[in-house]
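Extended Data, panel c. Modelled sequence:
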Amino acid sequence: MESLINKYRYILAQTSTDFMRYLHDQIDWNARLIAILGSRGVGKTTMLLQHIKLQDDPLTSLYISADDLYFTNHRLTDLAQTFFQNGGKKLYIDEVHKYENWSTEIKNIYDFLPQLQIVYTGSSILDLEKGGGDLSRRKLQYYLHGLSFREYLKMKCQVDVPVFSLEDVLQGKATLPVDLRPVALFKEYLRNGYYPFFIEQNSLTRLDAIINQTLENDIPAFAHINVSTALKVKRLLYIVAQSVPFKPNFTKLAAELGISRNMINDLFVYLEKSNMITMLRTDTKGVKLLGKVDKVYLNNTNIAYALSDSTPDIGNIRETAFLMSTRATLHTLSSSVSDFYIAPYTFEVGGVNKTRKQVAGIDNAYVVKDDIEYSALRTLPLWSFGLLY
């Protein structure tokens, strides 16, 4: 265990606390078992280390990564027992899904070491859902989205902008300091600012690696699919990327890819749960996730730029930007008369020349425009929705 402690102390010393993700202050860090989920690269590891550095006693806390070579011949339960017997109080386990039978061992630790707090993270939502059922009554679960435009401004420009509510945005109260030009900054954010590693020189390479790891390893390992089917998963994602918002025709897709219609359904679920796409649903009596899938979007605009052979369609980028800005805090649905519906409001998204024709006569309807700086009547700038979290 000494080797794990040495690694932990080293990376803790290297961790900066200059920028904290939005989710940190929303977590009940006193809970006995906390699960933090989120796609690769959004900052889960850094957030754990920052929390230890700022609010925990490093001597009674331990951060480990579940894919450490230590666990090739050591069990997680034995580590937890030894750590607790030597005065340990808080155990942080990163990338927990990489440890075989992780949920069973965490359940045992939770039951037999009630004074030990456990926080774990995972990037493969597929594996975490598959193994996390036994912990559902024990854990508090949180989901970390990628950077909002507000957080991007904090990292890039060192400017603190408050979080605004949807009502603030609708009333034109979501503003930036006068010396910032939001339109240009928002375009940069949509291209490469969703992941905190945008500040690194090899950010595009890292994003490509995340996409490939998800398509070539995470989904095939979870679904037990062969190489041929795995290639079709990748092809399906590229089909979506070239035509988002994608109106799914499962029968046509099945014929094009040479697989069954039911398999197409499964592949879409795998892509959504692995954070490659977002399936926008219609409302069914207001119950989330029970509505019919109406449109399919890429998870975020950075993926759109990474997968595109040329400049992505600007209309698709705008709609994806609206969805990724609102879904973290709001129940966003497809609208039968416009682009999006967030009860009780309807939103039509477009460019600077978009008119109100599409939403004429609809109560609580707004036009959301790219390439404008200020709100006017029921017309709102797209970038202002990036201040919601």
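Residues 67 and 259 are 34 Å apart (CA to CA). This feature is highlighted in the accompanying rendering.
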